[in-house]
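To: structure desk
From: M.T.
Subject: fold request, one chain
Message: Could you run this one when you get a chance? Sequence is below, nothing fancy, just the single chain.
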Amino acid sequence: MEQTAVLYYDGSFEGFLCCVFACYEERLKVLEIQPPGREKQEFFAEGREIITDPAKAKRVWNSLKKKASSAGLRDIKWAFLSEIEGIELQLLAVIRYVIAEEIAVDRDFSHPAVLRVSQSAKKVGREKHRMEAFVRFRLTRDGSYFAAIEPDFNVLPLIKAHFKSRYADQQWIIYDLRRNFGIAFDLSEVKYITLDLDPQIGISGAPEAFFHTSEIAFQQLWNQYFTSTNIQSRANSKLHVQHLPKRYWKYLTEKNLQK
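Reply: Done. Structure tokens follow.
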């Protein structure tokens, strides 16, 4: 007989896979899978804290790799990074479905959970590409490059390879202000970091306390260039917003210096 439970985990992907492991090992009927900060009181189910065990997580992932396509595995990872409330239960439903069937079903969009996970993964994919396009580095006083972002989804793990390849000759940091962690490249490898940032550093602009004088001069020059080449009579604001949504303007020097 299945036990009814609410699972609490550390918010990591490995931690989530350990929740899946517990479901099978203990035959649990799971009502909720909750990361830190999203806990809520459940009166009719036992609360269970799941400890992250890399070995258990690996066993679940290896089982999935035998049954799911590369696209299906990607969707599971990317949908998890969406952090959409309740996505863990949708992912659990997909994993149960994939493992239970003899044929590949991770592209069976008639299944509600498969469709939901795929849609969530696509949202994360769009955010990934936009972050790769709109991240703007600023030269700091110590000679490294710094970029602050506030993405809707947790895309830092997905964009690190792009920036490592594109800016392999520079030391840089991309910091997610919303989630308070970042990635740093030291000319050899990318590492995850946490910083105690001064709020005055901002997302764009170049406060003198933090950024090199050449960065300040460059931003002013860029704004002058943008203003001089922008033909107001040919402006198409509707098309402009369609290709460059307003929520990304905060990253762009030319948008912020015009205020």
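Reply (cont.): The CA atoms of residues 70 and 77 lie 11 Å apart. Let me know if you need anything else for the meeting.
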